[in-house]
């Protein structure tokens, strides 16, 4: 049974999404492995502050070239589309939980690369909700 102090601390961390923020920053450190990790973290937090003011997107692990690499794996013959099942699996693998179930091309079971990348970037930004000001 947690004490009131422990419960208050847990509520605070949850309300301000501190654990998610720390997980994201740690993941970015492992992914990029900067020579100067403290400066890198400061830059990420500064980027976060700017994104909260509407100036730009928040920090994110994935960029266009990363998503192109994912598409290269999903579409090795470069048909310029993937199936809806591939789309869902890839977005889930990227850690996106709230997947658009009706993206453009779903009725034909042909999700274009552009649609996938748009949905992925939007989903990753939503995942970065840890960066929302509380």
Q: Strands, helices and their partners?
A:
Blueprint: H1 4-15, H2 18-32, H3 37-52, H4 64-74, E1 81-82, H5 84-93, E2 111-112, H6 113-127
Antiparallel strand pairs: 1-2
Question: Can you describe what's shown?
Answer:
This protein is an all-alpha fold and 134 residues long. It folds into 2 domains: 4-58, cAMP-dependent Protein Kinase, Chain A; 64-129, Recoverin, domain 1 (Orthogonal Bundle). Helices cover 59% and strands 3% of the residues. The protein is built from 6 helices and 2 strands. It has helices spanning 4-15, 18-32, 37-52, 64-74, 84-93, 113-127, and strands at residues 81-82, 111-112. A two-stranded antiparallel ribbon has the order 1-2. The longest helix has 16 residues, at 37-52. The chain is globular. The model has no long low-confidence stretch (mean pLDDT 84).
Give the helix tally: 6
The fraction of residues assigned to DSSP E strands is under 5%
Instruction: Examine the coordinates and then state which fold CATH places here, giving the name of the CATH topology of the largest domain.
Output: Recoverin, domain 1
**Biggest sheet features:** 2 strands, antiparallel
How would the global form be characterised? globular
Domain count: 2
The CATH first-level class of the largest domain comes to: Mainly Alpha
**Which ranges are low-confidence, i.e. pLDDT below 50, for 5 or more consecutive residues?**
none
CATH architecture designation of the largest domain: Orthogonal Bundle
- What is the quaternary state of this protein? single chain
Considering DSSP H and I runs of 4 or more, what fraction of the residues is helical? Answer: 55-70%
Total number of strands: 2
Strand line-up of the largest beta sheet: 1-2
What series of H and E elements makes up the topology?
Answer: HHHHEHEH
Radius of gyration: 18 Å
Mean pLDDT across all amino acids: 84
